[in-house]
């Protein structure tokens, strides 16, 4: 197995695992399942800012990232929501993530940014759809 094919597998598996873990954060905030950390505040009230909206982003975009569909825009939204959580919620408790409890938010923000930059990998719905999309060739202008 070549280094490139191993990289393809690792990228796709990592994307799937991180996306699924992100979904678990969202379902915990929306439905209380899985129960999660009691210190996280429990279920967010419908429409409450920012908790309920963050949980919706976590579920919807986390699922998209998990299966590799609309991966780059979903990953950007995930990354941005975690950067928001870090700077708005955690930063007020201390400068460094180890001091303010923001390790998870920081890791998610950076990992989703990495996914957005690298793309979904070989084993993703986006990649499968791209293989079956007809190629029309380069666009040419009809204006002369």
Keywords:
single chain, 0% strand, 144 residues, globular
**Low-confidence residue ranges:** none
**Ends apart, CA distance between termini:** 50 Å
Task: Report strand %.
Answer: under 5%
Overall strand count: 0
Tally of separate helices: 6
Please state the overall shape, judged from the principal axes of the Cα atoms. Answer: globular
Based on secondary structure, the structural category is: mainly alpha
Give me the strand/helix succession: HHHHHH
Gyration radius, to the nearest Å? Answer: 18 Å
Q: What is the mean pLDDT? A: 89
Largest sheet: none
> How helical, in percent, are the residues?
55-70%
Reconstruct the topology from this structure:
Blueprint: H1 3-31, H2 51-67, H3 71-90, H4 97-100, H5 103-118, H6 125-132
Helix pairs in contact: 1-2, 1-5, 2-3, 3-5
Question: If you had to describe this structure to a student in words, what would you say it looks like?
Answer:
- This protein has 144 residues and is mainly alpha-helical.
- The protein has a domain at 14-31 and 40-121.
- The chain has six helices and no strands.
- It has helices spanning 3-31, 51-67, 71-90, 97-100, 103-118, 125-132.
- Helix 1 (3-31) runs antiparallel to helix 2 (51-67), helix 1 (3-31) packs across helix 5 (103-118) and helix 3 packs antiparallel against helix 5 (103-118).
- The longest helix has 29 residues, at 3-31.
- It is globular, with a radius of gyration of 18 Å.
- It starts with a helix and ends in a 12-residue tail after the last helix.
- The relative contact order is 0.14.
